[in-house]
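Appendix B. Extra example for self-study. Work through it before the problem class; the solution is given directly after the inputs so you can check yourself.
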Amino acid sequence: MLDDGKPLSGLDAVFRPRSVAVIGASDTETKIGGTPLSYLRTLGYTGRIIPINPKAPEIQGLPAYPNIKDAPGPVDLAIIAVPASLAVQALQDCADAGVKGVVMFSSGFAEVSEEGAANQARMHEIARASGLRLMGPNCLGFMNIEERVFATFAPVVGAGVAPKGRIGLVSQSGAFGGFAFSVARERGIGLSYWITTGNEADLGFSESVEWLASDPGTDVIVGYMEGCRDGDGLRRALDACRRAGKPLIVCKVGKTEAGAKAAASHTAALAGEDAVFDGVFRQYNVVRADSIEECLDIAYAASIAGLPKGPRVGLYTVSGGAGVLMADMAEARGLTVPEFSRETQDKVLAMVPFAGTRNPLDITGQVSQIPGASRTALGLMAADGACDTIVSFISAAGLGPAGMEMAGDIAHVRAARPEVMQVVATLPSPAFRKAVEAAGVPVFEDPNRAVNAVAALARIARGFAASGDGTGDTPAPLTVPADCTEPLALAALGERGLPVVDFRHVRTAAEAGQAAEEIGGPVVVKIVSPDIGHKSDIGGVELNLTGRAAVEAAGDRILTAARTKAPGARLDGLMVAPMRRGVAECVIGVQRDPTFGPVVMFGLGGVHVEALRDVVFRAAPFGEAEAKAMIHQVRAIRLLTHPRGSDPADIDALASLLAQVSRIAAASPGLESADMNPVLALTDGAVILDALLIG
Amino acid sequence: MLDDGKPLSGLDAVFRPRSVAVIGASDTETKIGGTPLSYLRTLGYTGRIIPINPKAPEIQGLPAYPNIKDAPGPVDLAIIAVPASLAVQALQDCADAGVKGVVMFSSGFAEVSEEGAANQARMHEIARASGLRLMGPNCLGFMNIEERVFATFAPVVGAGVAPKGRIGLVSQSGAFGGFAFSVARERGIGLSYWITTGNEADLGFSESVEWLASDPGTDVIVGYMEGCRDGDGLRRALDACRRAGKPLIVCKVGKTEAGAKAAASHTAALAGEDAVFDGVFRQYNVVRADSIEECLDIAYAASIAGLPKGPRVGLYTVSGGAGVLMADMAEARGLTVPEFSRETQDKVLAMVPFAGTRNPLDITGQVSQIPGASRTALGLMAADGACDTIVSFISAAGLGPAGMEMAGDIAHVRAARPEVMQVVATLPSPAFRKAVEAAGVPVFEDPNRAVNAVAALARIARGFAASGDGTGDTPAPLTVPADCTEPLALAALGERGLPVVDFRHVRTAAEAGQAAEEIGGPVVVKIVSPDIGHKSDIGGVELNLTGRAAVEAAGDRILTAARTKAPGARLDGLMVAPMRRGVAECVIGVQRDPTFGPVVMFGLGGVHVEALRDVVFRAAPFGEAEAKAMIHQVRAIRLLTHPRGSDPADIDALASLLAQVSRIAAASPGLESADMNPVLALTDGAVILDALLIG
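Solution. Structure tokens for the complete assembly:
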């Protein structure tokens, strides 16, 4: 992968070439070097096509040349379809000939052996040295549907090409990409580009996505990911999509948590790789889909209808049951189903006396007997202002003549009220599908899949609207003190302006008693040592102590316990701090993720972190709005928002603390990990009660 | 609804009539009285068809009669398709004429007005008095696909009939049923019966399901439910499906929790209607689907393939990516993906060197170059013994000639190893679909939908295998003591053999001190009063008291606080009990559900019940195995199975306690509700620390 900070350079020549050479071209159309030539010749590519083959003067009726260096004129793109043993030389020939882009189908590199990996590294060097861009090796290539560049040997193209559309698809798996292409074709879903990245010796998933974010012919991007070796590049790509306002729907496999992982801290042990990916996707408003079908559902809806203005959905139905079913799913997926105005409801009732009118609007089977009722009802719904999207369920009507009338009604209302997105659920005839899609209205065969797609787009839209959440100024890096103890850690965080508990660090039990008296009220006393991780386990913590005498006695017990139970540990006195009570204990952690670098974790304390793994992650840095979203993502959020016997926690203060921690984490390469556990959420503010920093 | 304990009586005449009369028959085939006549005439019904119309001697070419009473010979089934004003009389005429079953399309009854409801009640009486069975009113009727009984005016039939198959469908919504029928027809999914129940004046959802459970032509049942007025009937139907080994897949709408509900106890307030339905469905191994599509997916798979022997799935794939995607979903849905034996893996590798062999078995694109590889690999997987089901993903191959070869391989292995269920995911041609379905292998276009269906069937299969979980002897009813206090409640439960804490009930603070000394160790002291619900709120509880003096002082404080803060309350002394520590606090509740009668709730204590609503329900009574399933259903189960700093909780003891509570609840009509909160889960046993009984 290129990491020279110049992404996208040279990619136009790859993806929109004016000339394509095929190295290893064959007369046999089913061979790996024959298929792309055949596709390019027969499926409408209008640029120059140059077969390269040392043994034949003509291939598939076109003049052929023995080597790319013999080819006439400049060559934008070369497809290399030769065995692995010849591929490196072929790439060098391309570089020498001034070819700008190469797609390499050849396999037998990093995916099979160390020797192969070494050859692949050679190819990376050739690309870097010459400036050409390389897709593959071991990939199925790509297609530019509009300009008919079929730089692929994917057999699925033989069965037909997906229609031209505005969805770009990037897949790290060729087979997955081929299947998704077939599904799109069979469903009539239009694509702009189809890209498979294979071994990613140069051009990878992230850069391909970033390029599509800049492509004017692409409105929506679908990605299939197995892994990522370049977190920065991925974040740059996700940010490009967000800035371009283009929804990105990703199918990322491998949800199983990475098993035994060397854990320098509590936080690190909890960070399953997948949880971090999940957090980063949320951070950039990427929708993560569970299946190919769901990917295409959401992308299709966005490519036809764009994004809704908000989460409010109006449900039009000819079946009360289907209406409730859609309402259930809408609410489960985070949409709202607001009631229409009394005026709207009365107008509908005046027309259809037994209609359900609150929302869902159940027009009932009577609609077929009242001319114009569906158009009027849809128009009233759109004009009401209560909803950002209308989902219409018209049962199987889309198959027959009544459906075509409804398609006209839908198109009419869509044109009259363009601010209201529309989706329709029915079994559609091809004519119905064509009519509603032309009006900007996607059609789904299942009403719940329609609602699910709308919900995904509403989440994206809300994320896009909320972004621009600044991360603030970059702080100076935090240096973890040598032999860092809890007091040193708290002091270091306190110096950065983070709210830490007002503690005293003392040397003796007697000084502890004195400190307690100064603090007033019940206190906690803890052992201080850079060598003792779990202080409670050795009797190194006593809680809720009141009075000088009790504190002194506790201090003596703690020091004795430490000497007895942790005989090798260096001791550095005692820490005394007031017992604080708040709404709930939280945990904030920092760790360096192998892919994304510094990431921040948040969770509720105690069993919620330990046993229930109710924790969420984001890549640092991030702003307050993202921090708030992060807090609201924990399953046990009600313990902060609806605590028993207390006012709600000050979420703003917690969010501010999280965002500050993220800025410090991002700015501090020397900070390996941090645990702030617990952080006490208060009704007014938040305070760090304990901290562990590892450099 | 009939509640005379004679379900199913007379239903053969309704569902398999030898003669059908249409009252309100019309020559116009699109009219409500013309459509069923036309369907019956033209779609292959072989029994007698008798139009009834007072104005015409012949309808649609058949001799017509002015009244059902004039019709010749016995009439099994009459369809009533007249306006509401004539419907009651028409029903009476049917009763008088000895008709055995009636399907009434007419609307305008309980769904529109009180007068309509009164007329509907009249119809119920006519049915009861005469013994005829009534479907409807306000329904779309039914279809018996095999015997071509189209007793419906559903327009969807006009577009074509779903193939004959082994799925019975029952819907409380006609429009929903019509849509599901259309989807089944378009997907080529075979049905046995299609039944819509409308207003359910007599025959309802439950009895229809129960009848299908007894129908030899039906293997799988799909239900669409909006509500249920007869919990006993529903449980009888669910039990009939379970005993017949027929999977039931239900789409039950209305997941929103019933809002403000008069709550006599803590448990009652938590019981959203939907949570109780959910518990009952789990109890009877009913799969609850979120959408029509999911209902049909699961039912289709079961109707073609039956049920798997267990949850272990082998994944065959031509795409590594799709393999991981399927594995992710399999694990997320409760299936296991075990590794194949070394021997199996070696044999596959010998054939396809770069195959992934652990599971998923990624045969790679090379499979197309190695004759017989797919058949051999599938055969090895099936013979290995590691999996109960094989899901094969073959990308878009099902559309082409390679797919037909694969279909042959699949069928061959299915026949050779019938104990291993198979499902295939691909885009299928009609010929491919036909070939694999004939071999007992369902085909899905999306691999994740295939895995989801297998997971649902594995859950059902496990439930069926585990049932027969006896509920034990019926205990004598529990009578709630008058003015029931905590000591009375604990004593009553203790007398029933339930494990309750060893408490003392005393009159004075001095006696409390004495009791504490007898108990030994730290104790809890509480106020006793039938009038004080939340004892802690008025200072009526003190915890962790050691020594006679401390207990006496606490007793004084508590009595004073009660007199001051609950001045009107009747006081009945104090309760002293040992402080017990265990693995985790749980809550067990009982309440009377309006639909299902006595239901039992289980949850982890504290925030898990209060704020997080992590509670589960079952209808009483149930056995230990069901209780164990219930306990494992709570999200926070790890607090019992993986507690920090303790051995796991004794789940068997908790389950035994839950099952005992359920038996008592079922046997005690005088028990309105009960809260056992907390119940302490121990490493050995469980103990009830506090109880509230309401009679």
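Self-check: Chain A touches chain B through 61 residues (CB under 8 Å). If your reasoning did not lead you there, revisit section 3.
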